[in-house]
Amino acid sequence: MSTNNKLKSSVAISIIILFVMSSVLLNCNSKQEPSNLDITEFLKHARTDTIYPSAKQMEMLKVIIPETTYKAAPSISDRTYWDAIATTKSAQEYLKDAEKLLGKQPEVPITDSIYRLANKDGNRKIYKPRYYRTMEHLEHYILAECLENKGRFIPQINTYMQAIMDMKSWLHPNHDDKDNGVLEGRRVSIDLGARKFGMVLALGESLLGDSLSETMRTDIQKQLQWRITDNYLKSCEIADENNRWIDGTSNWNSVCTSGALFVTITNSTSHEERIAAVGSAINSMKHYVSGFGEDGYCSEGLGYWGYGFNHYLYLAQMVSDYTSGKINLFEGENPQKLKNVGNFPEQFEIQNGTCAPFADGVSHISSTGSNFAEVLSAAHYGAIKPSEIRFEEAVEQIIAWDNPEMFTPNTTQNSTSELADHTYFDDFGMVISRGKQDVPFSIAIKAGHNAENHNHSDVGTYILVVDDELISGDIGAPSYMAGSFSPNNKARSSWGHPVPKINNTLQSNGKTFKGIITETNFSEQEDKVVMDIKPAYDLAVLNMLTRTMTNDKTGNGRISIEDHFEASEAVAFGSAIMTFANYEILDGNTVLLIGKRQKLKVEISSSVGQVVIHPEPVPVEHLREGKGAKRIGIDFETPVKSGILTLKYTPVYK
């Protein structure tokens, strides 16, 4: 072969080799950079009998979940990161707060006798503050040590970590079974408290590393594996008596799942366990999100929206960070619904910072506690950014340090917007009709069903607000004490709500016992809502029962509630005025409600017969909204086959 031909052959071989090598490199790069997880497709492959991911789901996640464990922040040894954080104003303030806590002793373990008493009586005050102060102090010590790196907080950290590991049970005592099975070591379970104890230990071990002794690190890892990871994954795979929140729709699901996931992907040495935990969490969050209406309505109320959605958003941030953005739960499988959920607080406000205390909700928008959910909702869903930033957990603070722009308070625009004349959550059937008088008079009224989260068997309930005072209507939730969730608790049944009672029969429980909004008419002058609430009652004799709310917004305003019923035979029929206000019975058809600053006149009319006004105290000692709730019964004097009972509420100004 000539020299020229040899050269050509050599060049050709080189080109082929380069082509092959390029193809290999391209294939390698494609393996190193998997595409984002298609969550809709992922959920199609979920098993129907368990939260634990299917083989196909595990396969989809395997190329996305890193081989390494998750770290909420770099280790203390990364001084470039921590020294930069330490120069910020918020970090300096955080360090000062931690210094004030030096020398304080952990308040756990509590004694077995206190645990058993709290389990029996449901009294959270004798243990819960101790639990959360202990965890808050430890979180401050951990982050302060990372900021300072002088070993000054290590003795306190060791003391607190050991105290937590010495606890027989990490549960809230009232979440243990009646025989104290977790305390006695017969089983392990995860609740709102246990997930937090686990998170704090996992965070400390992950960040502090060799600053802790090898024995301490090993003990933490073993306890986290036993108390959280093994228990969590077992319950995900096989339904048992533990962790029934796993496929629930309430705040428990997002809160406990986020904690169990954090512990597992931070602490577990098994890649398969970390994959399974992420897959289980995604499957579980489908159930949690399903608990909201398509319109974003949260039947648990605003307080639980903040608590539950806060942890959903943290979970979304966690898996996004862990997978370099390849899993996007901020959009999930239904981006519009999550956007609606993120904007729920603004839509749910009645006026002047008040909202409906339906179910176990709160009546006033809190100015304390974490507003992490509001901050992330502003970033991801276009919600109003708050004018101040508040945290309750160390992981929130870390995210804020990593995203300073996101967590800068809103100072350039109003942190509130003009509320609409009305809001209609048409999925769950809840309406807020807002008066725009100088002293606004407004109402929130719901249909819904009697299997909602924290439900009170309250189809048709409402709340009336004058200015910022909830003067009549729903009296809210019993305080969480022994018996607060009992069906015999009158504040949790329809007896304790401004809804009809028929033949001494209350509303029944279950999703089929519901109200249906059949007509709405909204205008500047008047709002009208008609709902069929007959399905809420298991009464064969009842042929028809509608409730009509009319809000006449002219003048000082007037709101009427009209109940129209028909039965196949004469029935005892009545409704009620529920209030914390003082009252005067002016005559047989008029009651004056006297609040702290406002007054309402209630005019009672009936289409047939006479009515009897029968006031009585609500026999529930501990109510979240206060003391002294009254049920002013309004009943037909004798049974009737059909009739209309109307209550007209008018503000009184003198």
From TrEMBL:
**Which segments cross the bilayer?**
7-26
Superkingdom field = Bacteria
* SUPFAM superfamilies xref list: Chondroitin AC/alginate lyase
Carries keyword Lipid metabolism?
no
**Among its keywords, does the record have Transmembrane?**
yes
Query: What are the entry keywords?
Result: Membrane, Transmembrane, Transmembrane helix
PANTHER family named in the record: CHROMOSOME 1, WHOLE GENOME SHOTGUN SEQUENCE, HEPARINASE II_III-LIKE PROTEIN
Which protein are we looking at?
A: Heparinase
Its source organism is Formosa undariae
Q: What is the lineage of its organism?
A: Bacteria, Pseudomonadati, Bacteroidota, Flavobacteriia, Flavobacteriales
